[in-house]
Amino acid sequence: MLVRHLSLTDFRNYKTAEVTLERGPNLFVGSNGQGKTNLVEALGYLSTLGSHRVSNDQALIRGAEDSAIVRARLEHDGRELLVELQLNRSGANRAQVNRAAIKPRELPRYISTVLFAPEDLALIRGEPSTRRRFIDALLGAKSPRLLGVFADYDRVLRQRNALLKSARASGLKDATLPTLELWNERLVELGAEIMFERIGIVDALGPFVREAYQAVAGSDQEPTLDVVLSILSDHPEADSDVGGPETTEVPADRLSREGLADAFRAALEKVRRAERDRGITLCGPHRDDILFRLNDLPAKGYASHGESWSFALALKLACAELLRADSVTGDPIVILDDVFAELDQRRRGRLADAVKDYEQVLITAAVFDDVPEELTAHTVRISAGTIVDASDD
Questions:
Q1: Is 191 in the same domain as 264?
Q2: Quick check: 47 and 137 in contact, CB under 8 A?
Q3: What is the pLDDT of residues 109-129, one digit of tens each?
Q4: 36 is in an annotated binding site
Q5: 33 marked among binding-site residues
Q6: Residue 376 assigned to a binding site
Q7: Domain range for residue 280?
Q8: Do 362 and 221 lie in a common domain?
Q9: 31 is in an annotated binding site
Q10: For residue range 291-318, what is the model confidence (pLDDT) as tens digits?
Q11: Is 93 annotated for ligand binding?
């Protein structure tokens, strides 16, 4: 999978931008705030339907414009595709492939990227929601149909929460909420599928994480990852980070969709009174976590800054390797956004070795000399939202 050309209109600080990209490494260089990250953010959005920097699409539209357009000409096995996305300030976003309209959520079928940025340190040190988004983005990239499952679960969750809040406000009892059971079953059906898929992808990712950590850190430390299910917690109603080390082992009888569904129903029954009192759904995949360990200790709270960086980078490299192993459209596009400035010389070299054989790698850097020479073959220089120079060094 290659991006041959990227075109932007009214995206972030670009009125227009036209960038030709090459096979192998492509380096975007410019001072901070000039628009380097905006270019790779646009490509990342096409493959994940989200930004790694903001949660609101409105921030991606330049100034007071009504819309922004991202176009990418892709190539795989000699076949070209034109992928287009229009982000609208009001109304639904629109997408096309080869000028034929598609639903925006279908875009990840055509382009796959793995992006690593300084913000990814939050995977190790941040909140459970960050780790859930990470694992769900990987699931969406590997199996785009799951994007619809996530959207359906969020819709059902909102509806169920609205019903619980309404019941709390009016003092209604469970017996007067016949529709709650209907929402429960739909929540369980979708939630069990999400939990099942998360467990499967985490198990598949583990060996790649261990290999990637060794590649970037060169140490004998052992990174591991496990899904923490709120439905198995002794206190799923707690407001702190759900679960804990003692709840990471998922019993064998819960590993199937049916087993997870049964456990979810039992957990909902357990928290029924607390949900009614608080007006919110207290267990399910929306409250789960992924526990990262280094040498059997939780990375959050125990890993040093350098170890946390290495773990986060290993997670993203592992995603790229997993997608590469399963892909029928070639390698994912690897994006390294302002990463090399955060690494010492040794880790820079190790990272360059880890990514150099991917079909296409996109790199942003404020300082040209921060990037290993083998990744600077095609350099694009950027200033104030303008492509000022593109050359093969």
A1: yes
A2: no
A3: 899 999 999 899 999 999 999
A4: yes
A5: yes
A6: no
A7: 141-292
A8: no
A9: yes
A10: 999 999 999 999 999 899 999 999 999 9
A11: no
